[in-house]
Structure formats: structure tokens, C-alpha cells
Amino acid sequence: MSVKGKTAVITGSNSGIGLGIATELAKAGANVVLNSFTDRDEDHALAAELSRAHGTDVRYIQADMSKASDCRALIEKAGVCDILVNNAGIQHVAAIDEFPMDKWDAIIAINMNSAFHTTAAALPMMRKAGWGRVINIASAHGLRASPFKSAYVTAKHGVVGMTKVVALETAQEPITCNAICPGYVLTPLVEAQIPDTAKKYGISEEEAIEKVILLKQPSKEFVTVEQLAGMALFLCSDAGAQTTGTALPMDGGWTTQ
Ligand code: NAD
Question: Which of 16, 120, 165, 196 has the lowest tally of Cβ within 10 angstroms?
Fold first, then answer.
């Protein structure tokens, strides 16, 4: 079984990891639904460009993953969902007693609740098609904690828990559900933190990467979007058919410590 001709819905996929996975899936012949909360010309242009480059059907569907109704509408509008990649996510860093309530609610909604709603809407489609893959982009923070990231760590641990439940509920069907748990990945989100971190500690950008950002990542190398996409493709392959309910670390050794 290959992903050729399958339809993949990837939440939060107009940049970073989501766009990288979307690109690799399109390259492998899958039809793709890109998503974010914006509805700009450039979002639709991105879909057209991916479609042109890889000769598959690529659509952009606007839906705000902080809203339950939008999450379910995304899957309904997609019409088909063989591969669901729950990737949309945001971050906010603050001590728990100073953590803004609206940020807590947004992180729990986008990073965790959205995966519940999209999965609930997509499973009947997968059952009808007789095949399905749910891939949750969790984090090393779904397995380990760091201070000042209460909402993020809570949401990502929740996603890892939900992954196990979905895997058990679909265990006797040709459907799998897994979480990928990346360490630091060099996406625009992380790139933006490098100059600020260097400035804050009065060190070079190279030192900021090695000593601060990759402090917990023993390899001292970023995980790449292509590596994550490779894991997603493995999970969609026949070789991945008995891999279900797992939380797969891709973190340069972070969670082995
Ligand atoms: P990113 O900011 O590049 O991508 C986040 C995506 O989510 C964007 O496409 C954004 O538009 C979308 N998004 C944000 N709010 C949304 C909303 N309300 N509705 C729909 N889409 C929304 O960041 P990224 O690094 O590519 O992160 C992608 C996922 O990977 C996140 O879940 C993140 O927690 C996880 N992750 C990232 C890293 C890392 O180091 N970059 C590490 C581990 C896990």
C-alpha cells in the first residue's frame, strides 16, 4: 500500500512541519488538504504551487483549529480523509501563576482538543474507505516536562494519551493511530528565537543554538522536517501497519536521558 491516490488532511500546514509533511506526501502521490486559520491569497497559491509541482490534487481549506465546529467542518469539507495529520500547534512560555488564561485555553484547544474533533470526524470516513492513518504531531514535551510550558506540556501529554485510546478503539481495523514526538525542529517558529536568545544571554547565535536551544538535545542537531515526513510516510506504509498507539521520539536522544 502506498499513499498514491490517498487523501491527506494536515492541520496547520501553511508553514513549518505541516507544510514539510504535506510536501513529502504530495511528492509521494497523495492528494493533500492544506489548512490554517488564515484565508489569504498566498495560502491558496501555496496549494496551487504544490499541486503543479507534484501533479496531485492539493486544496487549501481555511478552518480555525481553536474552534470545535471548524475542526469538524474541515474534515467534512475535505470529503475524504485517508490520512489525518494533527499538526496545528502554538506555544506560550510563562510561569504557571502568571500564565494568561486566554493563552492556556488557546493552547489546549489548538494543540489537543482539535485532534479529538478531527479524529472523531475522520474515523467514519476511514472506516468507509477500509483504510486509515492518524498521525499526531506531539512533541518530546508529550513525554517530558520543561518549566514555564504548562499548557503545551499538558496538551502534548494529552495527545499522547488520546493516541493510545484511538489505537485501541481501531486495533482490529486497518487503521492505525500514532504520535510522533519531535525534539527541536528548525522551523520559522524556532528560527525566530535564535537572535533573541543570543541577545538575551550575550552570546553568539551558534552558542545560543548549542547551549540554550539544544540544551536537552544530546545530538546537538535539529531534527529536520524531511526526517519527520519520512516517519509519517513509514507509518502510512505496509511496514507500519502493526505500529499503532505509539509515541515515537525523534529527538536526538532527549527522552532517553
Ligand atoms: P509553525 O508555527 O511553523 O506551524 C504551526 C502551524 O499551525 C502553522 O501552519 C499555523 O498557521 C498553524 N496554526 C496556528 N494556529 C492555528 C489555528 N488556530 N488553526 C489552524 N492552524 C493554526 O510551527 P511548527 O514548528 O511547524 O509546529 C508544528 C507542530 O509541531 C506543532 O504542533 C508543534 O507543537 C509541533 N512541534 C514543533 C517542534 C519544533 O521544534 N518546531 C518540536 C516539537 C513539536
Answer: 196
In ligand 1, the atom with minimum distance to the C-alpha of 66 is: 18
155 lines ligand 1 (CB under 6 A): no
Residue with CA at minimum distance from ligand 1 atom 6: 12
Mutate to test the pocket of ligand 1, among 23, 46, 90 (most ligand atoms within 8 A of CB): 90
Provide the CATH topology of domain 7-183+224-250: Rossmann fold (3.40.50)
Q: Is residue 112 in contact with ligand 1, taking CB distance under 6 Å?
A: no
User: What is the average pLDDT value for the chain, to the nearest integer?
Assistant: 97
Q: Hey, where are the domains in the chain?
A: 7-183+224-250, 186-222
121-135 pLDDT, tens per residue? 999 999 999 999 999
Question: What long-range pairs does 65-70 form, CB within 8 A, spacing at least 24?
Answer: 65/11, 65/12, 65/35, 65/37, 65/109, 65/110, 65/114, 66/37, 66/106, 66/109, 66/110, 66/114, 67/109, 68/113, 68/117
Q: Is the pTM of this model over 0.90?
A: yes
Report how far residue 137's alpha carbon sits from residue 124's, in angstroms, rounded to the nearest whole number.
Answer: 21
Nearest CA to ligand 1 atom 3: 16
What is the distance between the alpha carbons of residues 48 and 60, in angstroms, rounded to a whole number?
9
Q: Which atom of ligand 1 is nearest to the CA of 19?
A: 9
Asked about 152 being catalytic, the answer comes back as yes
